[in-house]
Amino acid sequence: MRKVLLIMILGLCACKKEDNTTPHKSFYGKWFYTAAIHKQYTVSEGDTVYSRIDTLQYNGADYINFTEDRVALRYTAATKHLDSLLFEEVTPVFFHLDSLLCEATGISDSALQYNSLDFQYNETPLVQISQTFYWLKK
Please, what sign has the CA dihedral across residues 19, 21, 25, 26? Predict the structure, then answer.
């Protein structure tokens, strides 16, 4: 009886799912932007219209630095401007940068891909959705 109880306890301990909701540690740190694709959609009465698609190639100087202090520092080389954004982890892959909802779609030691969503509502039945896909490297 004791052997069965011991085996059951060991089995439960071995099968316990880890309750860790933070992104992989390689998510944190300074990441340099390499490219971005910006798409804008307008949804009106169930119909979707693609109104803009822009592609941007970065020169290697623009970066974002994700810190564990709930701050993301984003540097834009063209304007020499450093933004401080509120960085809030929602799940291991979803996070907020200020009011933007973002999803990390690929994370490795040397590359990060994420996209952001921004919803703009009008008083008419019109919704504008901006989505930007980012590629970054360490």
Answer: positive
Of 121, 117, 74, 75, nearest in space to 95 by CA: 117
CA distances from 95 to 1, 24, 92, 106 (A): 48, 13, 8, 14
135, 111 in Cβ contact below 8 A? yes
**Which tens digits make up the pLDDT trace of 102-133?**
999 998 889 999 999 888 776 667 788 889 99
The pTM for the full model equals 0.74
Among candidate residues 44, 24, 46, 21, the one with its CA nearest the CA of residue 109: 24
Cα gap 118→98, rounded to integer Å: 11
